[in-house]
Design brief:
The complex is a heterodimer of chains A (196) and B (431). Chain A has a domain at 20-141: Rossmann fold, CATH 3.40.50.300. Helix content of chain A is 19%, strand content 25%. In chain A, strands 4-2-5-6-1-7-8-9-10 form a nine-stranded mixed sheet, with helices on both faces. Chain A has 196 residues and is an alpha/beta fold. In chain A, α3 links the parallel β5 (94-97) and β6. The mean pLDDT of chain A is 87. Chain A has helices at residues 28-38, 76-88, 105-118, and strands spanning 20-24, 43-46, 54-55, 68-71, 94-97, 121-125, 137-144, 152-160, 166-171, 180-181. Chain B is 32% helix and 29% strand. In chain B, β11 (349-360) and β12 (363-368) form a beta hairpin. In chain B, α4 crosses α9 (155-165), α8 (146-153) crosses α9 and α10 runs antiparallel to α11 (247-260). Chain B is of the alpha+beta class and 431 residues long. Chain B is extended. Chain B has helices at 3-9, 20-34, 63-76, 89-96, 108-112, 124-132, 138-142, 146-153, 155-165, 194-214, 247-260, 288-307; strands at 40-44, 48-52, 84-85, 101-102, 182-191, 217-228, 233-244, 267-279, 312-317, 327-331, 349-360, 363-368, 371-384, 400-407, 412-417, 424-429. The chains are: A alpha/beta (196), B alpha+beta (431). At the A-B interface, α1, β3, β4, α2 and β7 of A face α12, β9 and β11 of B.
Chain lengths: 196, 431
């Protein structure tokens, strides 16, 4: 039964708004950047202070660097508190966080409630096997090798609370929000032999 | 006298560079202290204070008693000072620098006559010219006709002379007091409940925000001092991500601090002050974008107050080709967002260089983070030379040739080779 309380439908490869999602795998940061480029508005990226990886503004998709706020809390408790506080704020469009330990069901549920209260979307970049049962969707993201001048990504939707799972191979060059799906057979969408 | 001359006369001379900023600050502090003797006090030159004590001396028992009181208090504070009381500002200035004392009304010329002309606040050139003419004392000048004096030495000398002798008015120009943002509340009975403290804070915030609104300023940092019945004190300090004077939003930030306070036997006095304020013009209310900004500022304030404002950061572009220095991490509360240019040749994620064990140039196979990777395609090299004007330990290995390496296993990495110290390192990851 569809009610007014149901969150709006989301496009393929989009994140359902007002929920917290998870992404894992080696390509999880690329997935987060892809989502950041597709969410207009302020972005918050929460990483533990000891993590050596940090975003390089020149390499981020267009328009992401100036909207991005980096939080570097010390300790897992502060990190979770930051995620919850950022999710609860109505000003933020997307909250990306990298928790280092698996989330308990209570913590995961708490984040979902915070996201609903603040009408924001959350994306947790999880370690291998660190998923929470409370998450709305879980994505398995891997970079894939491809032909010349392509940046292929293999993104699998392995858990979905309201919908079906999926498996996409797409070409996204990391500069804008635009992407091209690569068809199953590996063929191009345009005619092989253009009309003269 | 030049320092070299002074050293020649006295070889053991100890010298210190003048610290003008500290001296000015000390003088400003003394000016506040002198406020106890007069409503109008101004700084007079680099080393003096001028107070307009008209109508005040009887409160201290006469001019002599006032001056004695001032001297005694300064002496107790360890300050050696000269003071003078005179009917005009110029005369007081002259007398204070030449012995001090009190000049009664109507006997100006007698008191000042014996002082040298340099006491008149004239420049060095004029003073020298006067002494060449044989006019060394103020008394020599006072009876000379004004017009030839002005023609010869300029109007400045005559003006200073008239000001010292009272022919020309010269008020004490006291600067306006800087507004003080602090309110306090003492309670007849001690309080101990959180809700009571918050209610007290509510009233203080209302008053403080009214003060701030009247001067068109917003608080950037707020401190709440709580005094307990047993004279113990505790304080809560919060920072704000941008200047603010909205009581409800500021109150929310105090909630956590008040929760952690130990009330002991009760709190009987509260004091709220804004040590740091910034200009904040009145805003039109009701527009949506402003609300959005407010919400973001609220978020940054609450985050900064818990994890520290230096951990809530923003990426700002900076002018360098070195990847690590091509951006700065600035506290978001104290910076404005700036657009940064996008280059496709730069990775999205940067990390400190990690050595990889590689074979070939560019490497056909290499090991990075326990992964055996095979190169599918290598793009490069892009040579970046160290900035010689900065000594960066990470760049001591010399030139770097950067390659974008796409691997058969998937990851697209940013590797560099150091030709001067052969070795391969990974520094970034492309999306």
């Amino acid at each position: 039964m569809k009610t007014l309380l149901d969150p709006p439908a989301c496009p393929p490869l989009g994140l359902r708004p007002m929920r917290v999602h998870e992404a894992g795998g080696r390509g999880r940061r690329s997935f987060a950047l892809f989502q950041a480029a597709r969410h207009p508005g302020p972005l918050v990226w929460i990483t533990p202070a000891h993590l050596p990886e940090q975003p390089l503004p020149a390499g981020l998709p267009m328009g992401v660097a100036e909207r991005l706020h980096l939080l570097r809390p010390v300790g897992e408790t502060d990190l979770l508190w930051c995620i919850e506080e950022a999710l609860r704020s109505p000003a933020v469009a997307l909250v990306i966080a990298e928790p280092q330990q698996p989330l308990s069901l209570t913590a995961g549920r708490r984040l979902q409630l915070a996201a609903e209260a603040g009408r924001t979307t959350g994306l947790l970049l999880i370690q291998q096997g660190g998923g929470s049962a409370a998450s709305e969707t879980r994505w398995q993201c891997e970079p894939a090798p491809g032909p010349e001048d392509s940046t292929l990504h293999h993104w699998q939707l392995s858990k979905n609370k309201r919908g079906t799972n999926g498996d996409w191979m797409l070409h996204w060059d990391g500069t804008t929000a635009a992407f091209h799906l690569v068809s199953e057979a590996g063929k191009r969408h345009q005619p092989a032999d253009p009309a003269r | 006298m030049a320092l070299a001359d002074a050293r020649a006369i006295c070889p053991d001379l100890a010298t210190r560079p003048a610290d003008l900023a500290t001296e000015a600050a000390a003088l400003a502090a003394l000016r506040r202290f002198t406020g106890r003797y007069a409503p109008l006090v101004s700084v007079d030159g680099a080393d003096g204070l001028m107070a307009d004590i008209s109508g005040v001396p009887h409160l201290f028992g006469g001019e002599a008693a006032l001056r004695d009181d001032l001297q005694a208090r300064l002496e107790r504070a360890g300050l050696h000072a000269q003071s003078a009381i005179a009917p005009t500002r110029g005369a007081a200035h002259a007398l204070a620098r030449h012995g001090g004392g009190i000049l009664p009304e109507g006997r100006l010329l007698e008191g000042l006559g014996a002082l040298p002309v340099t006491a008149l606040r004239v420049d060095q050139a004029t003073a020298e010219a006067l002494s060449r003419m044989g006019l060394t004392r103020i008394a020599d000048l006072a009876h000379l006709p004004r017009a030839p004096l002005a023609r010869r030495f300029g109007p400045g000398l005559v003006l200073r002379l008239d000001q010292a002798l009272g022919a020309q008015a010269e008020p004490v120009a006291a600067p306006p007091e800087a507004p003080h943002f602090g309110v306090r509340m003492t309670l007849p009975d001690p309080i101990g409940l959180q809700s009571d403290v918050m209610a007290g804070l509510d009233r203080l915030l209302d008053r403080l925000c009214t003060q701030l609104a009247a001067t068109h300023r917003g608080a950037r940092r707020l401190r709440l001092d709580l005094r307990r019945v047993d004279r113990q004190a505790s304080q809560i300090e919060i920072g704000l991500a941008r200047p603010m004077r909205d009581p409800a939003r500021i109150k929310a930030l105090f909630a956590k601090g008040v929760e952690e306070i130990d009330a002991g036997f009760g709190i009987d006095a509260l004091r709220l002050s804004a040590p740091v304020t910034e200009p904040l013009a009145p805003e039109q209310i009701g527009s949506t974008p402003a609300h959005h900004e407010d919400a973001l500022a609220d978020l940054l304030s609450s985050l900064g107050n818990r994890i520290g404002f230096d951990r809530v950061l923003r990426l700002l572009p900076s002018d360098s080709l070195i990847p690590e220095r091509s951006f700065t991490l600035a506290p978001a509360a104290y910076s404005q967002p700036a657009p940064s240019p996008t280059h496709r040749t730069r990775p999205a994620i940067l990390f400190p260089p990690e050595a990889v064990t590689a074979t070939g140039h560019p490497p056909a196979q290499f090991r990075w983070r326990r992964m055996q990777l095979t190169t599918l395609r290598a793009t490069g090299p892009e040579r970046i030379t160290p900035e010689w004007w900065l000594d960066d330990p990470a760049w001591r290995s010399g030139l770097r040739d950067y390659w974008r390496i796409e691997t058969r296993q998937g990851p697209r990495l940013w590797l560099f080779h150091t030709p001067q110290n052969p070795g391969w390192y990974a520094q970034g990851e492309f999306p």
